[in-house]
């Protein structure tokens, strides 16, 4: 189910006001060192809602895992761009 305010590319493509509508994707890889990654996790509700002893154990286990695999988590972010030319 789509969010009611979600962008709908079919509306742009079907509009008489625009032509040449196309999707362009920009892919960015963001590296997170272990400490920075754990800080990021503390901003997510599922992590914040865990009882503190459980959250501490989880984050310690994740830190061990990340450190055992090079100390960096790479997060791939894909941004959709919809350039179009205005008609008239």
Major β-sheet strand ordering: 1-4
Q: What is the assembly state of the chains in this entry?
A: single chain
Mean pLDDT: 94
Number of helices: 4
Computed CA radius of gyration, to the nearest angstrom: 20 Å
- Element string (H = helix, E = strand): HEEHHHEE
Please provide the count of β strands: 4
Layout of strands and helices, then pairs:
Blueprint: H1 9-14, E1 18-19, E2 24-33, H2 34-41, H3 45-48, H4 52-68, E3 72-81, E4 85-86
Antiparallel strand pairs: 1-4, 2-3
Notes on the structure:
The protein has 88 residues and is α+β, with helices and mostly antiparallel strands. The chain contains four helices and four strands. It has helices at residues 9-14, 34-41, 45-48, 52-68, and strands at residues 18-19, 24-33, 72-81, 85-86. The longest helix has 17 residues, at 52-68. The mean pLDDT is 94.
Question: What's this model, at a glance?
Answer:
The protein has about 90 residues and is of the alpha+beta class. The chain has helices spanning about 10-15, 35-40, 45-50, 50-70; strands spanning about 20, 25-35, 70-80, 85.
Features:
two-stranded antiparallel ribbon; alpha+beta; 4 strands; elongated; single chain; 88 residues; 4 helices
């Amino acid at each position: 189910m789509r969010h009611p305010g979600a962008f709908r590319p079919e509306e742009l493509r079907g509009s008489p006001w625009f032509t040449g509508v196309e999707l362009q994707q920009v892919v960015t890889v963001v590296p997170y060192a272990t400490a920075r990654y754990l800080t990021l996790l503390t901003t997510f509700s599922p992590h914040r809602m865990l009882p503190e002893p459980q959250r501490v154990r989880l984050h310690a286990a994740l830190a061990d895992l990340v450190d055992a695999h090079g100390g960096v988590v790479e997060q791939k972010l894909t941004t959709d761009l919809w350039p179009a030319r205005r008609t008239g």
